[in-house]
Amino acid sequence: MPSLATVRASNASWKPSYPPVGVFVGGTSGIGEGIVEAFARHTKGNAHILIVGRNRAAATAIFARIEKPPAPDLTREFFECDLSLIANAKRTAAAIVARFPRVNFVFITAGLVSLNGLDVTNEGVDSQIAAMYYSKWALTDGLLPALHAARVAGEDARVAAVHTAGRGGPIDFDDLGLAKCLTGGMSGMQAMVSQLASYQDLMAEGFAERNPDISFTHAFPGLVDTPLLRKSPSTMLRAMYYVRYLVFPGLLWSGKSVAQCGEYQLHGLLQAKPGASRTGENGDDIGLGGKDDAHWEEGKQALWAHTEKIVSEI
Hints:
Layout: H1 4-12, E1 21-25, H2 30-42, E2 48-53, H3 56-65, E3 76-80, H4 86-99, E4 105-108, H5 127-152, E5 158-162, H6 179-182, H7 185-210, E6 215-219, H8 235-242, H9 244-247, H10 250-253, H11 258-271, E7 275-279, H12 296-312
Parallel strand pairs: 1-2, 1-4, 2-3, 4-5, 5-6, 6-7
Helix pairs in contact: 1-11, 2-11, 4-5, 5-7, 7-12
């Protein structure tokens, strides 16, 4: 596993010959904020930086703090989007492609953690699963034309969804969408977390099979001190944020800051080859999932068909 010094040196050696367009979904806080800062630092501000999220004030503060663009045509833009509704993700992707015909980097770090059980939106899916999976899929799908245009121009085209690579388990073919998990108490919630990790793996592999010239990565950031719990709709999880060092003592000695995590996650995506990959907490390749799952390929096709139907009907 590479050290932080090695990762920083590797990132510093990255010198794109063009101003890249970076899209940071969930970039207003936590891991996303750390990745935005690392990206701006290692491009020396010579990039278009687009933050997608719910908090315009936070995005504005980040833009004021990071490296300034060296040319007036380089943009810093905020796209407001609540990912608990898939329609918002689709509209946002379309708006970005309309503004930027070529997109080089997409970091999707947005997340929602809740213990409140099933919360079905007017789109017919759970709000947490929409934010953690369906909207990620819809954004990636909607940005494909701009990613392909970047590859045709000889530029980078890379996508990373940050979740829990390496922590997945078998998916339930009778519960695609995880509604049963969300009504199954704590054991159901545990099953949901495991399956969501596999959903991210299968999403990366599904997109890579259909777009082999683009990099699709599912990343695991490890223990990172972020405000995710504080922003949860669950009262219990919000309370846990204030005693997080007692609940997660590893944060004290092995947890990363958001700045450190940003360096590692940027490194992981820069090293990813075209196709699907998974990276660990230090940005190192951990191989693909499903090695001990006899139904992995079947699950990939079933989940893709299910997701495509859900997203296309919204």
